[in-house]
Write a structure and sequence with these properties.
613 residues, seven-stranded antiparallel sheet, 36% helix, binds fructose -6-phosphate
Length: 613
């Protein structure tokens, strides 16, 4: 995710900004930039694509940029590829307003059109440039000063943002504003530090101010004043940071994996908002996927590896049920050597967090060579799969640092739901009313995930009880089978406990011979029509000595007659249950790993991006 730093004091700013940005490198980024102000002289801007090292070299470690006030940014692309033009800071043509931004501005297209009508020009593909020019527009139109201009822009912007802004007329001040994207301010004597994340300023001060949602701050040299969106002053008390540097990187969580598990409501919400309009309809224009293309699809092949493949398995059930289009899901490493039969109207969907997985990329190339339409569901903008696929649906998960995927998986599921609803509506399989109802329910998922996370201590307790388990079996039918595949993978990759996921009806065709006294069997039962069937498979295991954990919807309390331990998830549309049921299973894998004292963020033998066959 992008990182912001700022400094206002009496020392040279650029070296301090570079050092602050280096403390945020762990978050992942693809380009970086600085804006430094030397008294009343024009702002100096330097940007570089790639590692921070490039920016360091361009500025001689910051020494080449004079000035004691500045802002810096590391960018993780969300709108537009990684490039120097798209890197922050962005500025108005006359450099009246210069800013850096974290977050996603959902209505940037609409705002850009307004600004184009008012004579503004745009050079980058970013939503940030729109925010900068909107602030400039209000500053010049109403002449109410920086706080007024920012507040007016905030009233128009939909989405999340943390903004740090410099104004030509205010050479000694930095302005900041935020909504749903973090920002902290630290004062140390006559110096002011500002950052999107605590690690960047920890070296200078532990006493920080948190700006509230939809608040604005004016930062002088060693001073900070706060305002609400109505421009009224707000009083604030500083907070003492007690975390050490390592904990600060993880936002106070013990590991990246648990931090990212908790980031899922945001990843899901951002991905929904990237394709759902204010009126509640799905807009795939960013993917350049037209209704005619949707109508022409004869069958879908979903191709991916690992967890992304599991998204495909869930997607198969969703697409087939909603759209009545035949779907085949295949591991990329198999697809590429299978000589697949693809008719001209096949749509091949490649799912990949990194966009660089060697087998998935090879499968994409194979499909393209055969002349069929390809669609990538990808998290990393500018990655190989994103560049080469005919259409790209970006997941808005932000960079994932833990090797085991959690939030990217959840965001991928959302893309699948959105595609399936849109395809079904365009092809006449569901009414517009049904689509609207499904979109409304989709929007409830972030809060429902939040509710599941609130109950994590029960899973932690359960994990402690089973930390010495040797084998664990997961069973489920239909979508529940897809859920168990991911639950089992999460379990084995981080806890090193052998586990297997089985279609519940398949267990008695061999694997049940492995069930013995005390074996943990986890049954996922989120689908009403299949509940009794899977329950009876669980009973078969229990009668062979298994200890049963049930994972089902609130209301299915009869499960307690059979299961020894039950986790309930909120009710939702049956097509979406994967998004909720996976959360306790991610938590279970995580807590088992932690209980066993393993390196949960970097499990043995695994790499985050598998770029070899
Ligand atoms: C498991 C995991 C992997 C990836 C797989 C595909 O937690 O992260 O199974 O899902 O290696 O990676 P991407 O999505 O980058 O293609």
């Amino acid at each position: 995710m992008c990182g912001i730093v700022g400094f206002n004091g009496y020392r040279q700013a650029a070296p301090i900004l570079l050092e602050g940005l280096s403390k945020l490198e762990y978050r992942g980024y693809d380009s970086a930039g600085l804006a430094v102000r030397n008294g009343t002289a024009d702002v100096e801007l330097v940007k570089a694509k790639g590692r921070l090292r490039a920016l360091y070299e361009k500025t001689n470690g910051g020494m080449a940029m004079e000035g004691t006030l500045g802002i810096g940014h590391t960018r993780w692309a969300t709108h537009g590829e990684p490039s120097e033009t798209n890197a922050h800071p962005h500025c108005s043509d006359d450099r009246n307003v210069v800013a850096v931004h974290n977050g996603i501005i959902e209505n940037y297209k609409e705002l850009q059109e307004k600004l184009l009508r008012n004579g503004y020009r745009f050079y980058s593909q970013t939503d940030t440039e729109v925010a900068v020019k909107l602030i400039d527009y209000y500053f010049k139109k109403y002449k109410g000063g920086p706080v007024d201009a920012i507040a007016r822009a905030m009233m128009r912007i939909r989405g999340s943002y943390a903004l740090a802004v410099l104004f030509k007329d205010c050479p000694d001040e930095i302005y900041v504003a935020r909504k749903d994207s973090p920002m902290v301010i630290g004062l140390a004597g006559d110096e002011t530090y500002m950052a999107s994340d605590v690690p960047a300023i920890l070296k200078y001060t532990r006493s920080v101010y948190y700006i509230g949602n939809r608040e604005i701050a004016r930062l002088g040299k060693g001073t900070a004043e706060f305002f609400n969106i109505d421009r009224e002053p707000v009083e604030k008390e500083p907070t003492e940071i007690k975390w050490d540097a390592e904990a600060a990187e993880k936002g106070g969580f013990e590991h990246f994996m648990i931090k990212e598990i908790h980031e899922q409501p945001k990843a899901v919400r951002d991905t929904i908002n990237s394709a759902v309009t204010e009126e509640g309809t799905i807009d795939l224009s960013a993917l350049q996927f037209t209704d005619e293309m949707i109508r022409n699809i004869s069958n879908i092949q979903i191709v991916a590896c690992g967890s992304a493949y599991h998204v495909g398995v869930a997607g198969q059930y969703v697409f087939e049920d909603l759209c009545r289009i035949p779907v085949r899901v295949e591991l990329a490493s198999e697809f590429r050597y299978r000589n697949p039969i693809l008719d001209p109207d096949t749509l091949v969907i490649i799912i990949s967090q990194s966009g660089e997985t060697a087998d998935s990329l090879a499968a994409l190339r194979e499909a393209k060579e055969r002349g069929v339409r390809t669609l990538g569901i990808v998290n990393v903008i500018g990655s190989s799969i994103a560049r080469e696929a005919d259409h790209v649906f970006y997941t808005m998960a932000g960079p994932e640092i833990a090797v085991a995927t959690t939030k990217a998986y959840s965001a991928q599921l959302i893309c699948i739901y959105l595609l399936a609803i849109r395809f079904a509506a365009v092809r006449g399989n569901i009414t517009e009313e049904k689509a609207a109802e499904m979109i409304a329910e989709l929007r409830t998922l972030p809060d429902k995930i939040e509710r599941i996370l609130e109950d994590k201590e029960r899973i932690q307790w359960f994990a402690a009880k089973f930390s010495t388990a040797r084998d664990i079996f997961f069973i489920g039918r239909g979508i529940d089978y897809a859920i168990t595949l991911e639950g089992s993978l999460k379990m084995k990759e981080v806890s090193y406990i052998h586990s297997e996921a089985y279609a519940a009806g398949e267990l008695k065709h061999g694997t049940i011979s492995l069930v013995e006294d005390g074996t943990l069997v986890i049954g996922s039962l989120t689908q009403k029509e299949l509940y009794e069937k899977t329950l009876s498979n669980m009973v078969e295991c229990k009668s062979r000595g298994a200890y049963l954990m049930g994972l089902t919807n609130y209301g299915n309390y009869s499960i307690e007659d059979t299961a020894d331990f039950t986790v309930y998830i909120p009710r939702t549309d049956p097509h979406y249950t994967t998004s909720l049921a996976v959360i306790p299973l991610q938590l279970l894998g995580y807590y088992l790993s932690v209980t066993k004292g393993l390196n949960v963020d970097k499990p043995r033998n695994l790499a985050k991006s598998v770029t070899v066959e």
